[in-house]
# Entry
Amino acid sequence: MSQIHSFANGASQESIPARLIPGQREAASERRRKFPFRFPRDGRVLGGQFTVAENSRRLLRFFYFERRLMQALGAWTLSIPEFEVKLETGRHIFWHADAARALRERLSEQEKKLSEIDAFRDPEVDRFIEEVLSAEGAAALLVGIHQVAGRALATAYRHHIDLTCPVADVPTRRCLNRILADYAPMLEWADLAIAAYVEGGVEESALASWRWHLQRLLASIGGVTGSDPKVDAPSPLRSSLVPFQRGTTPLRDCRFDTFKSTGDYDVADGGERFPKDSYESLRLRFIRTQRDEVDAIEAFGTFIWDIRFKSFQAEHDLARITWDEARHTEIGHRALLAAGYDPFELKNRLTGSTCRGPMEPAFAMAEINLFGEVGVLKTINSLIDAARDRNDELLRHISDFIRSDERTHVRKGAKIIQVMTDLSAKDLELRTRELFTECLVSLGAVKKDMDVFTVSREDIEQLVGE
# Structure
């Protein structure tokens, strides 16, 4: 009697019966009986709902969603006031970037060229992301990014794991499971953060209405897979009425006391805490500078948005640096606590971020890479040596890790700049110095009668400070 097997495309096929040779099955059974080890039985069953083509179609859409979520969060980094949310956003930018990287790699294993993957665009996903970007405030942004898009993606990933072949498509299952490992804490944090916004006075009904609006919009494009039944899109869309424009001004919450008219902490504080150039002064300046790298989260996140679709590798590298800068900010914040300060009693320097916010990405990136990070590497070795000589384990510990990060950033940054501009290194440095001098003059950080060409690399390293 014939056996019928079902296949993913809905067709069926008559099975080809096995042809046995007398004695072989019995011999195999005897060999198994003599085998002494009883290893765990693999209970996976061959079969799944997706062909390679359908698997790739879905993964490509997942990849595009992750890439666009990375870009969207980057676009908002300047405009998020709350310290904790800005930090987490720096982290989440990289979680989405790395999810996109993993999906991209898996797609390349399923006969898709990297150039084809990187060139993929989906107007439906774009329309959804543009609407998410039109959120009225950071709380609403979290609703769209995490509670609508993020939760839908997590659900789709789990369903894909359940439905694809557990034997033939193990690489996809592993890829999605690794992505979900980042999603679990990210989505949990988002729920708690949104609850904190509501408890702090953000109108819950407005967030609920926005959530429903975005859920309907997502349903109108067939969900994150594009294969769900489509419904009518909500109308009107905010993004259709007012297209999104990223912010240019760095925002801080009310706990911060900020300054931007100088790069010197002593000037901003109204006096010296320690004698100038003493170890104690250099130590505190270094720790404060790390806390103030909250502005680097803004810078690198914004670069991702500003150069979107020029190079996936550049976007991924920027996302990783953004995550590093979020860690540096945390390091500085916690080190200030360990040093006996309330971090919010120490003024936050906005000079660099104020200048970079409106600037073209190549020049803003050059300021950080050519002046800021290189400047750190010029001085950090002697600082580590001094900390070791004084048995200052706190500073030695944090600066050791920061030094390794900054070295990596300088290497990656040089490649990112090549994506951003065709200018020669000399022309790029000169124009960056000119632009930053103009900005510093406008802020009152340097005298108006200074000749733009006399503002040296060292001047900008000192005045902007990274």
Q: What stands out?
A: The two ends are 77 Å apart (CA to CA). Residues 170-199 form the longest helix (30 residues). The longest strand covers residues 4-6. The domain at 258-464 is CATH 1.20.1260 (Ferritin).
